Every structure is written in C-alpha cells, then in structure tokens.
Amino acid sequence: MFHLDEKQLYLSFWRVVTYAGIHYTQGMKSLVSGIQPSGVPTIGHILGTVKNWRHYQESYRCHFFIADLHAITVQQDPAVLRANSLKLLAFFLASGVDPKKSSVTIQSHVPQHAELSWLLSCFTHLGELSRMTQFKDKSASHSTKAEPFGLFAYPVLMAADILLHEADFVPVGADQKQHIELTRDLVIRFNHRYGEVLKMPEPIIPEFGARVRSLQDPTKKMSKSDSNAQGYISIDDAPEVIVKKIKKAVTDSVGVVAYDNERPGISSLVEMYSVLTDQSVDAVEVAYQGVGYGKFKKDLADVLVSIIEPIQIEMKRLLGDEDYLDSLMSAQSRLVISRTAPYLRKIKDAIGLL
Ligand code: AMP
Ligand code: TRP
C-alpha cells in the first residue's frame, strides 16, 4: 500500500508538454479515481478520497470521473441517475478539481472504458470475481441466480478504468483495496503473456479516514445508500441537519474523548475530527481531556459545516450553469477519448486484434 507523504510526491523537473489539451510536466506520474453517482456524496467520500484530489493535481497527471457505468450495476431511476451524475460533477469541481489541470469525465462518455473492460474480462477468472467481498455484500440483496452479471463483472470495469489511463496511483477508500489487487493481478497475467503493455497501479489509501463509519451503527461503513439518513452526513445536508446528526451520533457511556478500538462510535468521530483539522489523534485526545462528548460533538459539527458549506455554495452555482457543465463534459470527453484511443489500440495490437 502506498501512503502519500510530501517526500514521496513525484517531483518532476522536465519541460511542460500538452497532453489531451492540458499542460503537464513531462515525466509526471498519473493518478485516476472515480465515484459512483449512485447517491449523494457523503463526508466519507471527502475524507476517504476527495479531500486530497486538489493537492494531487499539483503533482500528478490526474483523471477523475463519474462512474455511471458502475452505478447501473444496481437498479437506478433514470431521472435520479442523471441528476446525481451532474451533482457529482459539480461536487468534484466544487471540491477543487480544476479542469485546466486534471481531466474530468462521465465514464459512459468515454467508450474506451467499456471496450477495455471486455478485453480484460477475457483474462479474468470467475473464481477471482466470486471472491470479491463487495460482490458478496451487494448480491446478498438479490435472490440467488438473479444477480446482474454487471455486478459480478464490476471489478473488471474498474480495472479497465485504471489501466486505460495508465495510472501509477489510485486514491480510494479501504473498501476498494481488493479491487485494486485484482487489477494488479490482471496486469501481471496480461504482461506475462504479451510483454510490458499494462502499467502496474498502486493504491493510495489514507491511514486515517479510509473507512468513515455510520453515525448510527459504527460497526458499518458510512454509506450514501444507507436507508437511515441519520447514519451519514451528505453533501446536501443543511448546517442545522449536520449539527443534529452529529449530536445524535452513537457513542457510549464512558465519556472520554479518545480513539479506542473497543469504542468504535467515539473513535470514528475522533478520527473524523483529526483528519478534518489536520491534527494527530493524540493531539485531539489531549485537547479534549476532561471535556464531555457534548462540547466535542459541537466542535466537530462546526468543522464539518465549515468544510461542507463552501462546497454546497459552489455546487449550487455550478448546477445553475448547465451550459457550462454541458460544454465542459463534451470538451473533456473529446480530450480523453483522443488521449486513450491510441493506447487502447496498442493493447488490441498486443492481443492480435486487426
Ligand atoms: P463509491 O461511493 O462506492 O463510489 O465510493 C467512492 C470512493 O469513496 C471510493 O474510493 C470509496 O472507497 C470512498 N468511500 C466511500 N464511502 C467511504 C467511507 N465511508 N469512508 C471512506 N471512504 C469512502
Ligand atoms: N468502484 C469504486 C467505488 O465504488 C468507484 C470506481 C470505479 C473507481 N472505477 C474506479 C475508483 C477506478 C478508483 C478508480 O468506490
């Protein structure tokens, strides 16, 4: 696993080149990440991955995308899917993704993702897909034999997303680690047969914040598809709702603000506060020694509001400018298609496709 620190940031000293319409420094490493528009993003997405995107784009050639082809592996209402996809695009931009520095697309606008996914599926074993824990969890809600094939094949599409962009790094939350391991196995298998064609990616999983827990059931991951909205803080929540949800977050009767594996509720809140304020967990524990949960929760809610509110304001502005979002989507997909098509050709050549 790759933990990012300043020293490890790739410092390039080569000249600037233009690649898919964006100026990059030659020799820059590349990075890819995506989020499914299967709901409204939560604070889990911010902590687990998006928080660092704006920094990555200063040092890496970044591609961020809205994983709509992944979202349809579970049933989606068409109007809601469209609205959530646009909202996620606005969220990326409002969180600091700068289309002059990074490329940003809707996955289904770049057909190369689906095409590479088919090619890779011919190198993926049924056994390794059936071991994916996310498939096991998600398919549990279907009756046996009625699970969609797309849900089973989902990790192959994710491998295609990563490999199509020749990613060196993939920042994700902890739940995605297994999918990236599968991608790495595919690279070894493919390259063993055809030579060094696919680039080996490395996950970036933050030490803290990689698995933000539900506010109501801290043994579970905070999820945008939780049926109980009290369990998550969404990017749509008004400040007073955020305050209320944190106030009601499940803790315990010990009353000590500390990170302790035996007490997942308060530990999760401490972790959240530490990541959001860029302090160590120890520093947070010291600052709240002898102070009850009430004051700590109030401070945490204030920090959350101060982070979410500016994003909400910018999202609202962007969503009010449909022309801008439309022209951005088409310009970006054209650029990314022109960048990825030659590489996909190279993969097809290696396989022997005319
Ligand atoms: P998804 O909503 O499943 O498309 O997730 C998009 C990205 O956000 C993935 O990298 C996830 O690992 C990450 N993520 C989602 N929920 C959480 C969470 N509760 N804590 C940390 N990271 C998360
Ligand atoms: N599977 C990821 C998730 O559910 C989303 C995703 C799809 C992704 N393709 C990706 C993340 C490629 C990183 C890189 O969280």
Describe the protein.
It is a single chain. By secondary structure, the protein is mainly alpha-helical. It folds into two domains: 6-210 and 321-351, Rossmann fold, CATH 3.40.50.620; 229-317, Tyrosyl-Transfer RNA Synthetase (Orthogonal Bundle). Helix content is 50%, strand content 8%. The strands form three sheets. Strands 3-4-5 form a three-stranded parallel β-sheet. A two-stranded antiparallel sheet has the order 1-2. Helix 4 packs across helix 13 and helix 8 packs across helix 9. Bound molecules: adenosine monophosphate and tryptophan.
Q: Termini, distance in Å?
A: 38 Å
Strand order of the largest sheet: 3-4-5
Largest sheet: 3 strands, parallel
In what range is the share of β-strand residues?
Answer: 5-15%
Query: Which CATH C-level class of the largest domain is it?
Result: Alpha Beta
* CATH third-tier fold name of the largest domain: Rossmann fold
Shape: globular
Which terms would index this structure?
354 residues, globular, mainly alpha, Rossmann fold, binds tryptophan, Tyrosyl-Transfer RNA Synthetase, two-stranded antiparallel sheet, disordered N terminus, binds adenosine monophosphate
